[in-house]
Structure formats: C-alpha cells, structure tokens
Amino acid sequence: MPDDALTVNQPPRDHVLAALEAAPGVDRTGPEWEAFRQRFDAHFGELANLFERLYGERGDWRDHLAQLVVECAASWQRRPSELKELDARRDANPDWFQSGRMLGGVCYVDRYAEDLEGLRARIPYFTELGLTYLHLMPLFLAPEPNSDGGYAVSSYREVNPRLGTMSQLRELAADLREHGISLVVDFIFNHTSNEHEWARRAAAGEQEFEDYFWIFPDRTMPDAYERTVREIFPDDHPGSFVPMPDGRWVWATFHTFQWDLNYSNPAVFRAMAGEMLFLANQGVEILRMDAVAFIWKQLGTVCESLPEAHWLLRAFNAVCRLAAPSLLFKSEAIVHPDEVVQYIDPAECQISYNPLEMALTWEALATRDARLLAQALERRHNLPDGTAWVNYVRSHDDIGWTFADEDAAEFGINGFDHRRFLNRFYVNRYPGSFARGIPFQDNPRTGDCRISGTTASLAGLEDVTDAGDSPAVRRILLAHSVAISTGGIPLIYLGDEVGQLNDYGYADEPGHGADSRWVNRPHYPAERYAHRNDPWTPEGAIYAGLKKMLAVRERTPELAGNRLIGFGTGNRHVLGYQRPGERGVVVILANFSDEPQHVTPLTLSGFTTASTDLFTGQTILLGDGITLPPQEFLWLLAHAA
C-alpha cells in the first residue's frame, strides 16, 4: 500500500522511552532488554507512524502508544526461551514458509480428535502425511449454541473446556514444534461474542466497555450506516445492527450474537494486541486474521477494505515485530480478487488464502473449461517477495464464486448467470451434474447462494465403491494437483485426503440445523483412514495420489516459492502454466474434460523435444504433441528451445 495517505510528524520517541523507564513491570537490564531495544529502534518508527494515522486526532494517542509499547516490552520478557530461539531461527530464514516441504492441514479439534489430547495422539499420522502446518479451527471459549462454530469468542485466553485447557494447548504447540509442525489458530479480531466480558460490561452500562463496541441509543446512526453497508447474513438478521434488551442498538456484521469491535478506540487496539501476544507466547506461530476486510467503519462508505484496515494490520505487525518477532499473519478476505491481494504484504499478512484459485478450480470442473482459471493464474497469482498463497481445494467454509465479472466478460460470460449455473450444478439441480452439494444462505431475492460440501461429495464420489477408473477420484486428484503445484502452501482439510463424504446428520446436532456448512465438517472418518493404504479403494487411491504429488513437489525446487508464468495450451479444456527454475521450467498441463484432449506440437514448440515426466522419470517427446486422458495432469521438466 502506498505510504502517501497522510503526512505525519516525527514519532514521539521521548514520550515512549520515558514511559518505558518508569514502567515498574519492565526489567531494563541484561541481554533481553538489549534485544528489545534493538527491535524498538528498528520498528518503533513504523508503529508510531501508523498509530498517529489512526488515532492522531485524539489528544491522548501518545499515551496509548506509550502504554502499548510498555505492554510489548513486558510480553517479550514473559516470552518463553524456546520461542525466542524460534524467533532467532526464523529471523535467519525469513522465507521458511515458502519451502517446497510446506504442507498444511486444517481441522476442528472435537470433530477430528475429540480433544487436544486426542489431537496430540495423531501427531504420528501428521508426520506420515508430511504436515508442517496445522490449523486448528476456533477452539477458544464460545457459548453454545450461539458459537458460530467457535467464531463467537467469549475469551481469547481460555480453551473451550470440552477440548481441553490452555496448558494443554501450550503443550500441543510444543510437541508439534518438535515435529516440525507450526501451530495455526484463528484470531477473531473483528468481533467478540456478546457473552465476552467486554460485551457483558458494555451491556451493563460501563462507559469504558461501551466504547469497545459500536453502540447507539436509537436507530439514527444505524440507519445512516446501513445506507451504504451490505447485508452479510440476511437470514440471521437484516442490516448490520441488532437491538439490545435495553433498547440500544449494537453493530453486528455477521450474527446477532457477534458484536463488532470499535477500532477507532485505541484502547481496543491495545486490548486486542494483548490477546494476540498472549497467544503468541503459548506457541502459536501463525494467526489467521478473521474477516480482515470489516475491521474499520466509516460513515458513508461500505465499511469494507478501507485504508485504515490496512493500517491496523500493519500496526499489529509492528507490535509483533517488537514482542513476538516470528509470528505471521494469514489473511481471510473473501472479496473481489483485486481487494484480496491488497492485504498480502510482508508488513500486513505474509500469507493468504487463495479463494479465487479455489473457486475457479471448481468452476473448471463443472464447465470442463479451464479458461477462467488459466486467466486468474496468469494475471492474479504472482505476489510480492516475502509472501505466499495458501492454496486449498476447499475449507471449513462454504464455496462462493468470487471471480470478477469483468474477467468473465472477456470470455462472453455473464457473471450473475454463471454463478446461478454453478450453484445449480453443485447442488445437483443441473442435468448431468456429478456433485452432491448443499446450498448455503440461498437468497431468492438477490439470487445469491454459496455451496457447502466435502471435496469428495462435490466431486461425485458418493456413489463410488471401488477406485477402478473412477472419474470422481480423478477429479479429486486433479483439483489437488492445482493446489499443490501452483506455489505457496497447499492446505488440506483433514479427512479429504481419504475422500471423506458429506455428513448429512449435521442437522440433528444442537445449533447446527440452520447452517449447512456443517455438512462439510464431518467427524473423523476412521473407516476411510483404515483403508488409506489400500490402493484398490477410493480412499487409498486418493491418499496414494496425494502422497505421490507431495513427494514430487518436495524434490522439485521449481515448485517451491510463488513464481508462476501462464502457458496457453490452445485448448480450452486444458489448463497450462509454468514454474521456472534454475534447471529449466516445469510445465504443468491439466485436462478438465471428460474426454481425451490434445495439445499440439506447435503449442509446445517453444520447448526442446525431450522433457521429463516428474512422476515417472520417463522421457516425454513433445514433437507429436501431448494427449491427456480425461481429468489427468502432467508435470514436465522442460527446457526452452
């Protein structure tokens, strides 16, 4: 983001240094203090600059800044020595997360392993799979049934007691770290549960905590904001505000029981920075920053992706560089593709979900046409140095069709109509559909809808009993081949690697009936895991195929990092792209059609005749072109002619 939005004055170093000198809880002697002072010298200017941008109109902003830095110093001195050693290792290898060995897994603790101790028992399997990154879905204290799957947090410092304790989470993080696996958790920082202590005290009328939220005495200001703010979950409540029992109104972007935090108050920034540093000191290495686009509100705007949202992220980063230097941020922004990339920066979110690649992979599977996906990879894939995509086939969430209408229009595709087609296709309301998805937030008034379902059910595996020559298995492997080979960190929703199916019993669980996303959050599929080493079963074929891809990726340096160059195949059914490196270029071809497809010799004439199939090691001659079977892919090491 350009650094020209505001002109700021010299940072108030003397004010902050005086506060540090006077702070009773800060030890200002020895090497730990010296280490903090060195980082203070390196990063304070950025933090002060951003803090003044955000809060400079307040007369007390310097005092808040001084208190924030004192809290950072105290948090650093509480940071365990083994985490400080991790900080040093990551400082020496800042691109560690771009390694070709990186592989992510994501799960709900209770659904995958019952509790944290059960999850620790699965570490041997995680190492078998090759995980280096484990994302645990929200596991902090949240009220039932109004938990929104854990996203309505009532305490950032307490684990849901059904799952375990904070001490057990800290021990799990240490065990994972010993096995080379980084712990990732969600940081829900746009809102809290209405049962969080801050919200309860605000509801009781304590002015300090009323200022933590957007609370108004009547509908005057809510009506003014809602003229420009879109509805997110209209089925839950219309607009963006909900009534409180005493007649006041509070901002709740998502659900009635999730109250948005007021970041125009610097006390909220300080409070959330404290929660963030607490989690970092438990051994969390990456925070998924939830709903980043919504964190700043301004009257007369859509209140999404405003410049101040970026300044907040940068300021939180500066806080981490002071007190938890190795902590990374992952962005979650399901918005227009041009907005998604605005959050990806070494100073904001170093890694980010890649929702466009995910959505267009499913789009290509439905249409058997790879042009939109190829266009996205060529135009929207490459990122700044020091950052990486997290590529996934599906997540815990629904699938929304996030492609840009203007991109689709270049192929004569009407975006609105195309989304309606995709929704019909993936809920099996279109002739010839293979998918078994469930609609989520179906809005007949606007035509909006998203799709719930596991990878296997969406790919048509529900009626398959033997691996044989199953197009469903091929679709699953084809989709994962894109996520694994395009660069960044591939992420698997755990259980998908053995073809877990939809859980149609989700509606019988308390609090889940109205949220179809629980269909794609099944419990641990023990029987499918038991067959993972039997290649004659669908689960064994999927598992073996994924393991083979991951092994090739690990030994192929061209597939590390992010750099990707488009490659036009001259065939709308065949996706192509290139991953260049020192040995040559890996050319990847993927056939999304149900029929064999040919790539002509002329199309491949920019390469020498002989190439190497990275899966088999065999020489592949390009002089006659290449014919790919249905839903098959090739990774070729080639050389420019």
From TrEMBL:
Family annotation (SUPFAM superfamilies): (Trans)glycosidases, Glycosyl hydrolase domain
PANTHER family with a match to the protein in the record: ALPHA AMYLASE CATALYTIC REGION, ALPHA-AMYLASE FAMILY MEMBER
Pfam families: Alpha-amylase
SMART domains for the chain: Aamy
GO process terms (BP): carbohydrate metabolic process
Transmembrane region(s): none
Protein name: Amylosucrase
Coiled coil: none
Lineage: superkingdom: Bacteria
Record organism: Sinomonas puerhi
Annotated Glycosyl hydrolase family 13 catalytic domain residues: 108-553
A GO molecular-function descriptor: hydrolase activity, acting on glycosyl bonds
